Amino acid sequence: MIETLSARVSRALLIAAALFAADHAWADVPQVRVTATKKNFHATDRVGVEIDTRAFRDGSNYRLIVVPAGSPDPIPNANEFALASTSVRGGLVRLTLPPGPPGASEIRLYYIPLDSSRFAVAGRAAVEIGPRTPNATLAHDLTNEAKALGPVRFEAKYRDQPFNMEGQFLRVETRTAGPTWEAIIARTYKGPRDYMAMYIGHLGTEKRADGPIEVLCLMDAENKKNIDRAAQLNPGDPVLLHGHATHWGRVYESQVVIFDRCVFAK
């Protein structure tokens, strides 16, 4: 299983109180409002939030993150926090955050006070995140790890290691695989074969140029059960798939993680 950046930040927050002195425990800012778009989120949902800092002028470097409820406020590792959190401008802003930790959680808006160089909490909102499928990797975690490791190290880690992955169905395309020179030479080519290119991720994720944000599942379209199942899916529906993560890169003009030999896990 992958220990994600957000998981490491959450774990570190639980022991942070022992690492910082009491003078870093600022109270939340009354002029700042943080509101979740709803109370309960599915495990594969991005977490919707609205912030309003228009009445507050005494801070900078706003960042949002979803952490387990009850985690200490101080940030023990600034580098991990920067990678796991989302930068946001001040003012009235509505956006979504990556899926949060399961169970009782909290959206926190951090900022740096004018008289300090360390982050403090400006505001927070309680949310409940649904349970994840046991022994399954979240699509968001897989794409983040792919970006962190790079294509070669990512492929080396996951080669020939099938696992379950869950995320949200985004879209599907049917394509036809033609012959390769290897198949022709070996006389194994038996004609064109249809396959499905199914994209899995999390609705609302912004595109980025430095790494993948979606998983591309390559699935046999000659199997009618696969076609029938895919036809029932709508964008945002949670799905659980089984396959092999091979590598990541640009495919069909998108940066994706390739999830090969992909089948529906349930």
UniProtKB/TrEMBL annotation:
UniProt keyword list: Signal
Protein name as catalogued: Uncharacterized protein
Position of the signal peptide: 1-27
Keyword Signal attributed: yes
